[in-house]
Write a structure and sequence with these properties.
This protein is globular. The N terminus is likely disordered. It is mainly beta and 1002 residues long. The strands form 13 sheets. It has a 22-stranded antiparallel β-barrel. It is built from eight helices and 60 strands.
């Protein structure tokens, strides 16, 4: 059998970089394909044929220079043959493509035709392929199904993404819209700034950007994580891209099944949470030691030919069931016994119409169902009692249907067209919900002189009631054309996305208890009098009636066009130049555009790769680009749909058995009743006035410089530096007083009651607002950042990464990666992790200038040090061992208090200023959360007596059972009236659990 040449004796690749670049250009656009390139001896009439296990066959002519490339190939296993005179004179088997990349298959001197009949094919193993891809200029990590089957990971797209450098866990309270998976931050950006793709279709949550629809774990063929530097084909993300490609049928029928079990006895628990400040310091807040959980997952798949070489089918199903209990905090004292049912399915049909045309149809679904019961719980004895009430049940479902057509018009021109639709439903109900009972917020702040020191509560467990008819749809149309012209591959296309959010709304009503300095006004603006002015408030205790309500059907339209040229300047230099134009339009419930960003928003992309030695052993690369981000549908709920968000304040002299205050005295306020810090009184604003007239989209600039080097046939290492600068942000500003004062200084006579509570703006810049005048027109009022008392918006991310990798050689593979980074500024992005705020682009930040004083510091997703290592070892033919290590420094801590040295409340936001005990308190100045050390191991046994089709495996996540604090309560209160919750842990990292599995593949 012939032997594949080693890197040292392989044919010269001085000119091969060109072929690889030309082949990879079209693959990037869809993120579902790969390419094959290489070099062969020049001979008359010579061609190369690539034939996949799913019947796809492409034949191209070898150029006069001996180069060839076959681009835009569906993922799969290929046989690549060198043809002379219509006969195969050499071939390579089992060539597996990697998404978005080029795979080199080169041929040595061709055998004679007489010898061709006896020529044996060569199996190309993974480590024999060149590990340095000189065609790429971006930062990407591709994890294959073979790796997923071995590595000890949680079964989610986010857990896979954590293998990539620069990807860190986001705030633990942020989870996906249609699943409970914790989200990730990529490159210092917030968790809502990532884009999710499934077989090339954008599945990102259209409501708020919290995650996206993903595949059943066993249906993932490859997952690609782009953490920076990606080309003009991608947009709507200034974080990263998580793209999954699903499996497809081949000419052989395969089926399999798997059962997984995570038992309760092998699961660890997090430490208990205690009060660390105030009068309750040292007392338990929440008991985790009695929490437990077990789950089981069943999955199956089948795939094969419906018509050999023509029509193929693949389907997979997965059902996860989780049963758990969780003891709530001491202020509510319940033991919540709940369960999740999370079914998923995926199906794909591939039709090879002929050698030049392919049609792919994809369907997928992901559903999350939750229900739970609250049982009375006695903290003093640790005993669970009778049923108290039922928790809110939810049924969230998402389905995706995608059609993709690929036409190889000529060897040099490829057209792809994709259209898909995603439908999401969000249903919730609270069995036995009693609307006559009002929820109690902060019962621990009830006056102890009345309660005797024990909180008084009721059986109401639902604070928020959502509209059960809530739905959302997304339509995505992409058309891409790739044309190879000489040394250039030019790719262009359109990328249109329409999202509709229908019947979205929720309501909340509660009695919220509070405590402050008796002689100080509760709010300065809007004004609320001091507690001592009402009966029972002499010691600083008060209560407010909290009301929140949103309801709307809204739409977001996103359009984009892009053009990119992959140009091989000479034998060693590749340059990629691209431009993208994004346009975004957000509509209010009446179908009126309140945010129209349709003027060209040019996003240039420039990248270069230098094949230093001309043999793909050392690549130096760099790139620079601009990335725009649209506002999701949920922005309209608070900004353009007339939401209600009010508080009405009282003092009280008693509390009844339901926890309701009695003996109420209403406190004086600026409205004479309920007040809203954001002026949200349920009145829908004029669409023309919602956003500043000169508003621009959020965008970020990024720069990268790095190298990858093949040390020898067994080892690759590299380094990369990355810089990200947020140039513009979109959030709301609520300082209407400053806007009105500026209007008055310009001589405008305006009715302040006609002004909106908040305005979508570009904080840190000058904004021009339309204010209704008395004649039915508008006055334009420009207010600078200095007039608002605000700094320039800032988010900077710096990272330096180095890695060492050993590709799989038939025995073992491993990779270790270290990244040093710093993320700092005065804005995290669209959401805010330190206070757990999910209101996209409507955060506390930027509402008033005083809230932004001393706001510059370390941001919530900052992880100074990250060390990641993973790999697997084939100990024996029947045994495989794998490991995954994640070591990270902790995130910064924050302390938020009242304003200034006198600890006042000038804009009515309470303990949300960047002061702590009267001292300036920039983010991160309160220290850091502890380091995390998560080591996970797995073992698999595939016995020979079952032909290695049967497997037994065990995985232990976090074998050290380390559960460290990941977040704590940041609101300090005042020195005279400290918040007893300040400093207590709100989230811990996931403790140890074990997973046992049985798998059968045929």
């Amino acid at each position: 059998m012939s032997k594949h040449p080693s890197p040292k004796v392989r044919l010269s690749r001085i000119s091969l970089a060109l072929a690889l670049a030309l082949g990879a250009g079209a693959a990037l656009a869809q993120s579902t394909t790969g390419s094959i390139f290489g070099q062969a001896p020049v001979a008359e009439g010579e061609t190369v044929v690539a034939r996949s296990a799913s019947g796809i066959s492409r034949e191209v002519t070898v150029g006069a220079d001996g180069r060839y490339t076959i681009g835009s190939l569906p993922l799969g296993s290929y046989t690549v043959s060198l043809m002379q005179g219509g006969k195969a004179v050499d071939s390579r088997n089992d060539v597996n493509l990697r998404v978005g990349s080029g795979t080199e298959v080169s041929f040595a001197a061709a055998a004679s035709s007489a010898a061709a009949t006896s020529l044996g094919s060569v199996t190309v193993s993974a480590n024999a392929l060149p590990p340095v891809d000189v065609s790429s200029v971006d930062s990407r990590t591709v994890i294959t199904s073979a790796q997923l089957a071995k590595l000890p990971l949680a079964r989610s797209a986010e857990a896979i993404a954590l293998l990539a450098p620069g990807v860190v866990p986001g705030y633990s309270g942020f989870t996906g819209t249609t699943n409970s998976n914790s989200l990730v931050s990529i490159g210092g950006s917030s968790v809502t700034e990532n884009a999710y793709y499934l077989n090339g279709f954008n599945t990102t949550d259209p409501l708020s950007g919290f995650g996206g629809i993903t595949l059943p774990y066993g249906a993932i063929d490859q997952q690609e994580i782009l953490s920076g530097g990606y080309g003009a084909a991608y947009g709507r993300s200034d974080g990263g891209v998580i793209s999954q490609s699903g499996k497809r049928g081949t000419n052989e029928w395969h089926f399999g099944a798997q059962v997984l079990w995570e038992p309760a006895f092998a699961r660890g628990t997090s430490p208990n949470s205690y009060y660390v400040s105030g009068t309750n310091a040292g007392e338990i807040y929440r008991r985790y030691s009695q929490n437990n959980s077990w789950s089981e997952t069943e999955s199956a798949y089948v795939g094969g030919p419906l018509i050999k070489d023509k029509l193929f089918f693949f389907a997979a199903v997965e059902q996860q069931k989780q049963h758990s209990n969780s003891v709530t905090d001491v202020t509510t004292s319940y033991n919540n016994q709940y369960e999740y049912h999370n079914p998923k399915w995926y199906a794909k049909i591939d039709w090879n119409i002929n050698d030049n045309n392919i049609l792919e149809l994809t369907g997928a679904s992901s559903k999350t169902q939750y229900k739970g019961n609250f049982y009375n719980y006695d903290y003093s004895t640790g005993q669970t009692g009778s049923l108290n009430s039922q928790d809110t049940s939810t049924k969230n479902n998402a389905t995706v249907a995608i059609a993709k057509y690929t036409s190889y018009i000529t060897d040099d021109i490829t057209l792809t067209a994709m259209y898909g639709k995603q439908k999401m439903t969000y249903y919730s109900e609270t069995p036995g919900y009693d609307p006559s009972l009002t929820y109690i917020l902060n019962p621990e702040l009830q006056n102890p002189a009345i309660t005797g020191g024990s909180s008084i509560n009721n059986a109401q467990s639902a604070l928020t009631i959502s509209n059960p008819d809530h739905q959302a749809t997304t339509r995505n149309l992409r058309i891409d054309l790739s044309w190879k012209v000489g040394d250039h591959t030019i790719t262009g296309g359109i990328d249109n996305l329409d999202s509709h959010d229908k019947d979205d709304g929720e309501t909340a009503t509660a009695w919220q208890y509070g405590y402050g300095t008796a002689s100080n006004p509760i709010n300065d603006s809007p004004y609320v009098a001091a507690p001592e002015t009402g009966a029972g408030g002499e010691t600083g205790y008060y209560v407010n009636k909290y009301i929140y309500s949103t309801s709307a059907s809204v739409r977001v339209k996103q359009r984009a066009e892009y053009l990119e040229d992959s140009w091989q300047v000479d034998d060693r230099w590749l340059v990629k130049v691209g431009i993208r134009n994004d346009q975004f339009t957000n509509y209010n419930p009446n179908g009126e555009a309140f945010l129209r960003l349709t003027k060209p928003q040019w996003a240039p992309r420039l990248g270069a790769a230098w094949d230093v030695h001309g043999d793909s052993s050392l690549k130096v690369y760099a790139n620079a680009g601009r990335y725009y981000l649209a506002m999701p549908a949920s922005v309209a709920l608070r900004a353009a749909a007339g939401s209600t968000y009010t508080n009405e304040y009282y003092t009280y002299t008693g509390i009844d058995s339901n926890g309701y205050p009695t003996g109420l005295t209403q406190l004086a306020s600026s409205t004479g009743g309920a007040v809203s810090a954001n002026n949200e009184y349920g009145v829908a604003p004029d669409a023309k006035t919602v956003a500043s007239s000169n508003i621009k989209s959020e965008y970020q600039d990024e720069y990268q410089l790095g190298f990858d080097q093949q040390i020898n046939s067994d080892w690759v290492w590299g380094m990369k530096g990355q810089v990200r600068k947020l140039r513009n942000i979109l959030d709301d500003i609520c300082d209407t007083t400053t806007i009105a004062d500026k209007a008055a200084s310009l001589g405008y006579n305006i009715d302040t009651s006609s002004m909106n509570g908040c305005y979508l703006s570009n904080p840190g810049r000058s904004n021009t607002y339309r204010i209704p005048d008395a004649n039915g027109g508008y006055d334009s009022v420009t207010v600078s950042a200095a007039e608002f008392g605000m700094p320039q918006a800032k988010r900077s991310y710096y990272a330096l990464e180095t890695y060492l990798e050993h590709p799989f050689d038939g025995t073992w593979t491993g990779k270790i990666d270290y990244l040093y980074s710093k993320s700092y500024g005065n804005t995290e992005g669209q959401v805010r992790s330190d206070i757990g705020q999910t209101d996209v682009s409507a955060t506390v930040d930027w509402d008033f200038g005083k809230l932004m004083e001393y706001s510059n510091g370390l941001l919530s997703n900052d992880r100074k040090h990250q060390l990641k290592a993973y790999g697997s070892w084939q100990v024996a033919p029947e045994w495989m061992l794998s490991g995954n290590i994640l070591i990270m420094s902790g995130t910064p801590k924050t302390c938020l208090g009242y304003y200034g040295a006198d600890e006042t409340n000038p804009v009515g936001y309470g303990s949300y200023y960047h002061y702590c005990a009267g001292e300036p308190s920039p983010p991160g100045s309160a220290g850091r959360q502890p380091w995390q050390h998560i080591i996970s191991l797995s073992a698999e046994y595939r016995p020979m007596w079952a032909n290695q089709k049967l497997a037994f495996n065990v995985m232990v996540y976090n074998v050290l059972n380390e559960s460290k604090a990941t977040a704590d309560y940041v609101r300090y209160g005042t020195t005279a009236s400290p918040n007893t919750n300040y400093g207590r842990v709100t989230y811990y990292s996931t403790p140890r659990y074990a997973r046992f599995g049985i798998t059968y593949d045929f």
